[in-house]
Design a protein that fits this description.
Blueprint: E1 10-15, H1 26-35, E2 40-43, H2 52-62, E3 65-75, E4 80-86, H3 93-119, H4 126-132, H5 140-149, H6 156-164, H7 179-188, E5 192-195, H8 204-212, E6 217-221, H9 227-239, E7 243-246, E8 265-266, H10 267-278
Parallel strand pairs: 1-2, 2-3, 5-6, 6-7
Antiparallel strand pairs: 1-8, 3-4, 4-5
Helix pairs in contact: 1-2, 5-6
Bound molecules: adenosine monophosphate (AMP), zinc ion and fe (iii) ion (2 copies).
One fe (iii) ion binds at residues 14, 16, 71, 249.
């Protein structure tokens, strides 16, 4: 039996499931975490919280600690700012209302994207694409899959590059909340807010803006972060007195490889987050 008080072991605080654009169920992801020897994972679906309870149930059986999480889509007007929430109450009414609104908006957006594609001569059945998301929030990855299946593109990346990537001809924006609104929602629900993959497209000035608005931490380890970036953000977190997190951003095997188990953070980081939570 593991000594629970010790800060030993590893964690992955960025995992997607079928409740957003991940390929696998929460239970399956917990199984994978267990196989990878992880002590804790956070389920962080895009604008969705419904996978958390299922993961907790599986986690209890498989001895994997589940951190309730979410990845909120916000925008500062120039760039997407993804904000990870951890340890909030997934049944908080503010959070539930937000995710319901967002899911409805995503369905409308998928139809708009498919309309744009139709005008370009590419016919996808919107109902089929939306249904392919199952109970999850429909996103561009589902449309990319459909474009591949119907033979309009040869690869997942080509779908984004040619059609549905940011600013491409069939791109449609998601409804946007500001980073400050995202932070407020997470804090109101009792959680801590972290900036996801800050190295992907934000400048340090843009990051500092969010820090000033009350950010609690930043994700330092991420598949899109180089070793230099990890070091940079580790120092950045020290300077700005931020907590640190990290993870695989695993979406299952959609892009051919399973990222879980390859981007682990020391469990000690999770302990630090919990300590900070108790100071509120
Ligand atoms: P959505 O939330 O519907 O806008 O979809 C965003 C997701 O699409 C991201 O989490 C990525 O998984 C994927 N994505 C976005 N841009 C690209 C891209 N250029 N190439 C491949 N995948 C992308
Ligand atoms: Zn995603
Ligand atoms: Fe993200
Ligand atoms: Fe993510």
């Amino acid at each position: 039996m593991r000594e629970e008080n010790q800060d030993t072991g590893w964690a992955d605080l960025h995992v997607h499931t079928t409740w957003s654009d991940g390929v696998f169920s929460p239970e399956f992801m917990v199984q994978k975490a267990s196989e990878a020897g992880l002590r804790a994972i956070a389920i962080t679906d895009h604008d969705a919280v419904r996978g958390i309870d299922e993961a907790v149930e599986a986690g209890n059986k498989m001895d994997v600690e589940i951190v309730p999480g979410i990845e909120l889509s916000t925008s500062n007007g120039i760039h997407d700012v993804h904000i990870l929430g951890y340890f909030f109450d997934p049944h908080c009414s503010d959070m539930l209302e937000y995710v319901r609104y967002f899911q409805e908006e995503r369905v409308k957006r998928a139809r708009k994207i498919i309309d744009k594609l139709r005008k370009m001569g590419i016919r996808l059945n919107a109902d089929v694409v939306i249904a392919s998301a199952g109970h999850g929030a429909v996103g561009r990855p589902h449309i990319a899959d459909a474009l591949m299946e119907e033979g309009f593109v040869l690869s997942y990346d080509e779908a984004f590059y040619k059609y549905i990537g940011d600013g491409k001809p069939a791109f449609v924006k998601k409804p946007e909340i500001s980073p400050a609104e995202g932070l407020a929602l997470i804090h109101k629900s009792g959680g801590l807010a972290f900036l996801a993959h800050p190295g992907m497209d934000l400048t340090d000035d843009e990051i500092i803006q969010v820090v000033k608005q009350g950010l609690d931490g930043i994700e330092i380890l991420h598949p899109k972060h180089s070793v230099d970036m990890v070091n940079h953000f580790y120092n950045f977190a020290n300077i700005h007195r931020l907590l640190v997190s990290g993870g695989s951003d695993c979406h299952g095997n959609r892009k051919g490889e399973m990222m879980m188990g390859r981007f682990n953070i020391p469990y000690k980081f999770v302990s630090e987050i919990k300590k900070a939570l108790h100071h509120f």
